[in-house]
Specification:
The chain folds into two domains: 232 residues, Malonyl-Coenzyme A Acyl Carrier Protein, domain 2; 62 residues, Malonyl-CoA ACP transacylase, ACP-binding (Alpha-Beta Plaits). It contains twelve helices and ten strands. Strands 2-1-9-10 form a four-stranded parallel beta sheet, with helices on both faces. A four-stranded antiparallel beta sheet has the order 4-5-3-6. A two-stranded antiparallel sheet has the order 7-8. The protein is α/β, with parallel strands linked by helices.
Length: 312
């Protein structure tokens, strides 16, 4: 059995999400020298942080890298990686492909560019539960200005677009039999053509950053295929800003290639729930999450016991 690390993206944040990660203070210290703002209070002491996209994306990146470092300090390494959108940048740091400081520069540019694009083209996202992709795609095509964006699991798909189009699509999805349609607290039309200006801005920054070959494959959520070549990764990072997140297909591909243990590295358990629903008919799939040093201790103990043939 091989192990895939999964890195969450925007939407998995929570108060005090870095408070129990010993590696976080040093990373926030580095970030203060790179970024024009200090993210540590919002990630540790603020009980009700208010996030903008340009602040949240680097904050999530730092916390996910800190969680990965907690595992690495306990001699844990992944055999494969999956990142949900923004999570791919933290995955690249874990794979040895992206320097942490360069990652900060890139993620800050990404958050800033997406925030700016959203101001030009206001919009948002909504989760559609219990309606298949074909039906959702048809509704979006008929309305215009809204697109399938996050293919999270076979029963959960997020749509993204302009506010008026999003509202029409939500109503049509309900009428077509969706169990629920929930407006998400994401203030941008992510993973839609409305983000094209942001993709251009991020490309200009990415062109100044060096990527190394990956230590293990990243299953891209753009094409649901494994990649280790930096040149391929570059194009996928840009394409991913305007393309749907094919998360469930990436998980299925990793599982088909032997991944039987999926560890969510970062705040929350959103991705673990999506994997559980995606691989519901697959036997022998193990799930874990790491958002604290204590979690890392527990996971390292379980993995070590299994590797030695003992019981966890």
């Amino acid at each position: 059995m091989t192990t895939a690390w999964m890195f969450p993206g925007q939407g998995s944040q929570r108060p005090a999400m870095a408070d129990s990660l010993g590696a976080a203070p040093e990373l926030f210290s580095v970030a203060r020298d790179v970024l024009p703002f200090d993210l540590e209070p919002a990630c540790t002491t603020d009980p009700r942080p208010t996030w903008t996209t340009r602040h949240l994306q680097p904050a999530m990146f730092i916390v996910c890298v800190a969680a990965a470092q907690a595992l690495e300090a306990r001699d844990q390494r992944p055999d494969a990686l999956v990142g949900h959108s923004l999570g791919e940048l933290a995955a690249l740091v874990a794979a040895g492909a992206l320097d942490f400081e360069d990652g900060l520069v890139l993620v800050a540019a990404r958050g800033r560019a997406m925030d700016t694009a959203a101001r030009r083209e206001p919009g948002g996202m909504a989760a559609v539960l219990g309606l298949d992709l074909e039906a959702i795609a048809g509704i979006c095509a008929e309305i215009g200005g809204v697109w399938p964006a996050n293919l999270n699991s076979p029963g959960q798909i997020a749509i993204s677009g302009r506010d008026d189009s999003l509202a029409q699509a939500a109503e049509r999805c309900r009428s077509a039999g969706a169990g629920r349609v929930v407006r998400l607290e994401v203030p941008i039309a992510a993973h839609s053509p409305l983000m094209a200006p942001a993709a251009d801005e991020v490309r200009a920054v990415l062109d100044t950053i060096e990527l190394q070959p990956l230590d293990c494959p990243l299953y891209s959520v753009v094409d649901a295929r494994p990649h280790t070549d930096p040149s391929e990764i570059r194009e996928l990072l840009i394409e991913g800003i305007v393309s749907p997140v094919r998360f469930w297909e990436a998980v299925q591909a990793a599982h088909a290639d032997g991944a039987g243990r999926f560890i969510e590295v970062g705040p929350g358990t959103v991705l673990s729930g999506l994997v559980r629903r995606t691989l519901t008919t697959m036997g022998g799939v193990e799930l874990a999450s790491v958002s604290s040093d204590e979690d890392a201790d527990r996971v390292a103990g379980v993995v070590g016991a299994v590797a030695s043939g003992g019981r966890p």
